[in-house]
Structure formats: structure tokens, C-alpha cells
Design goal:
The complex is a heterodimer. Chain A is mostly helical. In chain A, about 60% of the residues lie in helices and about 5% in strands. In chain A, helix 1 packs across helix 3. In chain B, helix 1 crosses helix 4. Chain B starts with a helix and ends with a helix. The chains are: A mainly alpha, B mainly alpha.
Chain lengths: ~150, ~150
Amino acid sequence: MKISTKGRYGLRALVDLTYHCANGHVSLVQIAERQKISLNYLEQVFSALRKAGLVNSVKGAQGGYILAKAPKDITAGDILRVLEGEFSIVDDLEQNQSPGQLAIRHLVWEPINLKVRQYMYNTTLEDLVREYRMLNELSDESMYYI
Amino acid sequence: MKVSTRGIYALEAVMDLAMHSEGELVTIKDISLRTDISEKYLERIVGILKKKNILESTRGKFGGYRLGAKAKDISVYQILTAVEGDLTPVECLTKAADCGIDPDRCATRVFWSGLLDVLKSITDNTTLQQLIDESNQISKEKIDILEYYI
């Protein structure tokens, strides 16, 4: 039960972009360095995110990417749906299910799908960046005391 | 992110066993016939579940399996984690990170940890007994519908 590399890296890269894009667009080279993701891989991820309308590209020598919407209007669910497909804990189920299989579906798989999607679509990039900023500040403070 | 076939089959097999073991032992062959899961696959799953004390067995001519605890005391979480290892959506929640990022400064680790909490709370709060009750309810409704048409 794992999230794919694409989903993991993509979400992390977008938090990085949001965190650093206050002064304008961010180049993929910088994100790649900070997040230790290969540039090639990031290019694929951002191409998919651009097509989905979540980021815009800025062309030119100083080119890069910016968010297409405000961080509070982009959710983790939006990003993961583009990179992983809509979350579903099981593949589409066959039609002729036994009462036992239906019971598992009603009490386990369907509630998981519902609650996980709620969680993903209720978490915005703004939330994730706030968290990230706190982590960085905490780490910097402890560095200061050492 | 999907649950593995092993996880799905483990739930189906334990449910089948629980529903057919009133006072008697159930053999792998019986479960296989009813669930359409191959005996070989079932042996592997049942072996793991036995190690985790979710099932217990008796050897011999009339040997077989039964639940290792009451159905109301066995959670879906216990069954799934027995065969899946854990439910973590990303490795770094339980093991060393292989991505080169300091976990304490990772931009998304807290998010994934929250997702794990969602999975845990649903599976931990659902018991085998609830699944059995739901299954019986569904069977009853099916029979009611059949009788209505006859």
C-alpha cells in the first residue's frame, strides 16, 4: 500500500515551489537541487501539472514555473489526482460480489476512499507550506542554539 | 495506492472462516471452495494469520482452523497489517528515508503521516464482527427480495 514516486516527488516539489515563489517564478533546477529530485523527472511531473492547469511555465533564460492559482485554492488532492489518478484503495470491483465481499466493500473500502479523498481535498498547498515553514524555522532555531 | 490482493483475500478468508466455524474447525479446502481463492494462496495467508494469533489450528484427521479470538475483538487493522506489514503510504514513516531529505525538514512527511492516521482509524474501528453482521444483513435482504418475486 504505497503512494507512487511520482505522487510523492510531485507534491514535495509543489510545496517547495510555493514556499519559494513569493519573489516570482522558480526554476526546476533549483527545486531539483533542494528536493534532491532529478531534473528530468521534475520536467515530466511539471509538464503534467501544467497541462492540468495547476502551474504556469515562464519561458526564457530565467524561466521556470509559478502556481496557476493561489496556494489556498490548490489542494493535495488536485495534485495527486493529476500524478496518481483519483485515489481508490481497490481497483474497480467486479459486479457479482458475494455478501461477504460486499460487506468488506461497505465497511472498509468505501469509507477509506471517502475519508482519504476528504483528507486530500481538504489539505491545501497553503496548509502544507505553513507546516513546512514551521519545520524549517524550528530546525533553524535549534541550529542557532548549537 | 492500492491494498494488495493478499490483504483483500485475508479479509475474505477470515470472514468466511468466522462465519462457518460455529463450534467446528474449518479446513483450507472448505474456504477455498466457498471463496474461490486457491488452496495454495490460502495456505500462505492462513500461515501468516496463525503466526499473528488471529487464527489457531488443530492438526489431525479432523483438524482445521478457527478464530484465535472473538470476532468482536479482531479488527480489520489487525488482519490487514498481519499480511501487508503496515499501512504506511510512504516508506519514510517507519523506515529510514531513501530520498536524501532530512525527515525532520521534509515538506510532506506530516501530510503522509496524517493520511496513515486516516487509514488506521477506519480499519482499527471496524471489527470482524461488524463485517459478519453486515454480510448477514446483505444475505437476508437478498432472500427477502427473492421471496418477494416468488
